[in-house]
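Table S2 (text version). Query chain:
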Amino acid sequence: MTKVNREIVVSEALDLLDEVGLDAVSTRRLAKRLGVEQPSLYWYFRTKKDLLAAMAEAAMVPHATAPLPTPGDDWRDWFADNTRSFRRTLLMRRDGARLHAGSTPVGDLDRIRRKMGFLVASGVPERDAQTAMLAAGRFTVGSVLEEQADTDPGDSADLPADMPVIDHESAFEAGLTLILNGLAYRTAPGRSESTGPVPGAL
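Corresponding structure-token output:
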């Protein structure tokens, strides 16, 4: 019988995700993979939702452990690199974007505050920094959702002749540039900080 702890359960659950996809992940399959009885998993996770939340947090480790910005960094370069790091991490796991969507980065709140503090210290208005981080995050999740759902990106036979084949990375970079240019415009000297609440801002 496999010696099991919380970390092993999550690690094996992520490997199962890579093999079968999110829809096929079940506590029954996971228990069989671990060589334990299914009810024993409830010692570590009371519900499947709790297990998925732990999987989502563990899957984000490469991004969550990336170096934080330093005072000498250019905020534009850092913003772009941070968003690319998020995309790369989502793509590391099968259905990574679906797993992450709707999760709450409770363990990453201190890092998020430090990132926000860096942007504000670099001259980005606080409310605009919040909105831009939120927009970039949601744009990235949506982009990766589309990319991971595109199971046969080379098959363009059914597309109209005037419909360009989508290159996911190029499309992502173009969208990121638009977000970044918009934020740079909002940060230009002479523009005042926007007012009013930002729904869902971190």
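Notes on Table S2: Confidence is low (pLDDT under 50) at residues 194-202. DSSP finds nine helices and no strands in the chain.
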